[in-house]
Amino acid sequence: MNNKQQLEEIEIRLLLDGVYEVCGYDFRSYALASIKRRIHKCLVDEHLETITDLQKKVLHDKAAMKRFLNTLTISVTDMFRDPAFFLIFRQQVVPWLKTYPFIRIWVAGCATGEEVYSISILLQEEGLNKVKIYATDVNEDVLTKAREGIYPISKMKEYTANYQKAGGISSFSEYYVAKYDHAIFNKSLQEHIVWAHHNLVTDASFNEFHLILCRNVMIYFNQQLHGQVHKLLYDSLIPLGILCLGTKESIRFTPYQDCYEAVDEKQKIYKKVK
Length: 274
Ligand SMILES: C[S@@+](CC[C@H](N)C(=O)[O-])C[C@H]1O[C@@H](n2cnc3c(N)ncnc32)[C@H](O)[C@@H]1O
What we know:
Blueprint: H1 3-23, H2 32-45, H3 51-60, H4 62-72, H5 83-97, E1 103-108, H6 114-125, E2 131-137, H7 140-148, E3 150-152, H8 156-165, E4 176-179, E5 182-185, E6 193-197, E7 209-214, H9 223-235, E8 237-245, E9 260-264, E10 269-272
Parallel strand pairs: 1-2, 1-7, 2-6, 7-8
Antiparallel strand pairs: 3-5, 4-5, 8-10, 9-10
Helix pairs in contact: 1-3, 2-4, 3-4
The structure holds S-adenosylmethionine.
The site of S-adenosylmethionine has 21 residues, from loops.
């Protein structure tokens, strides 16, 4: 590593320490390569030269801090994202969920809510009504959007195709009302959902769940933080509970790999067996 890179990493450390001290958001164990990319995006967006300038700005200007947090927490998501996952979920996980009189589900890192509405649609179609879905994220702004359940109408073609590939048994357009350039999702889908702020890095477990979806969240974490968050997820699952990760994520090489059996390794669906 050359001197310039070393200095940059020192500046990043100081910036992230400052952010943690000032607002309690802890990005210090996020994967460095991804953090660097996001910080450079912030520099461009804020028209700043150095990371030290950025530190000064975010620590003194609340609006800049908010923009910084929004850039660092990547909230890209889709409805029925990775349709094959939802298809296998319907075939392999739903029959097991049906054996319980009441189900608690945690969608951790729910972003703007598309994944939560997808699960809600799927459960409704499968007749699973005795259910509570806790949908959480560290970013308050995305939670506000998630609560609204309003998405661009331009995305509906893609989401309809995803829904069909995911084994949807109805017509996707039944789940929303089109208004101008927006699709407003039916309030009935929200009946079983509790939206809440939760930080996987700094907050504790808050219930025991039959099912946890934590998809495409830990890809941004370093190895040590993976271990820490996996402990939280493990502690939050009932025995034989199901854990779903993103397609680029795995339980392998984490301290908990022996505690789960794969329900479907390709779709990253695991059952807690120890
Ligand atoms: C790429 S999105 C994934 C959304 C959805 N799970 C999916 O797979 O489409 C990642 C989400 O994780 C959230 N996130 C990042 N760090 C987090 C943390 N420490 N605690 C809770 N959520 C976090 C981000 O705010 C973002 O909304």
